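ok posting inputs for the pyridoxal-5'-phosphate job
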Amino acid sequence: MNAPLLPAAVADPAHVAARIEATVRGEIRALAAYPVAKAEGLIKLDAMENPYGLTAQLRALVATAAANAPLNRYPDGGGDAVKAALRRSLALPDAAGLVLGNGSDELLQLLTTLVARPGAAVLAPDPSFVMYRLCALYAGVRFVGVPLRADFTLDIDAMLETIANQKPALVWLAYPNNPTGNLFSASDVERIIRAAPGIVAVDEAYYAYAGSSFLPRVLEFANLIVVRTVSKIGLAGVRLGYAVAHPGWIAEIEKVRPPYNVNVLTQAVVPVLLEHGALLAEQAATTRQERERVAAALAALRRVTVFPTQANFVLIRVPDAQHWFATLRDAGILVKNVSAMHPLLANCLRITIGTPAENDALLAALSRYQ
Ligand SMILES: *Cc1c(COP(=O)(O)O)cnc(C)c1O
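and the output
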């Protein structure tokens, strides 16, 4: 081991703090870094991951692809192999433009950057994915949240009125929504696309678990961008997101994209994984079946309200979320307590659908607690 580097002198922490205060915007200093819960030894039902992993055969193919990846070189800035594989697997028409992100989180940031001129507003229903608000804060643009109804459906009148008043440059619609799990009405989404003066980004992170998608309609509208990720279908570790829209929009996003944002290993293995996409599709089908089983079993418990879901997680309301969260943790199960995220989410837990055995453990722990 190398000896630690010891500087001759260490700056006074108070001086460091003073410089930070003088330099970093107050709204950034007020933030806490995104908390990622430690899950060692726990059944992990907190982050909407696919619980299954790959077959031995597919792992061997991935190993070969990774072994042959040119790690001494910068990645292909265009991500051509990944794009070709995505176009094949999604049957995208040539007329549709495609851009890649380091996870879709990066694309959310790039889209926000694109519209961040003085006075611009970004709008999203609330509660929804927290990154919409955070990206606006990072870029220094105004964020306007429009409350969902108490049943988490869109308040379409409030949405249309706020769009008319605020003229947002960017509207986010998570379809299905996170953390609520429900799918907004497609006709409401269409009304929003038609009413919005700027971009409407339909974020389909959970498309594999939902009965509806705007991807087949992406070329129908001049202002629609569909954003997706491979994270929730089983590849959260590779960090790959993509956006599909008219090529004009894609050309603008390309101008704010870091040139080497998708790394060599991801570019090497994703085409192999997409070629064997049937495995991930089967796993998603199992998760959809398990979701129905888990939702029905949760609904049969006393004191539990289950909200409709078309994602790979289910939102429930319980009498005391903090206590139920802790009880599950003591039983070795990690879920997400979303209670503090929004008043409408009071006493709500978000539970990712796991393997049948993990789901059985969850249901057993909750029924013991009844
Ligand atoms: C998980 C999630 C994302 C981010 O996915 P990454 O590709 O892993 O960055 C984006 N949008 C929504 C709605 C999500 O739930």
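notes: The first strand starts at residue 43 and ends at 44. The radius of gyration is 22 Å.
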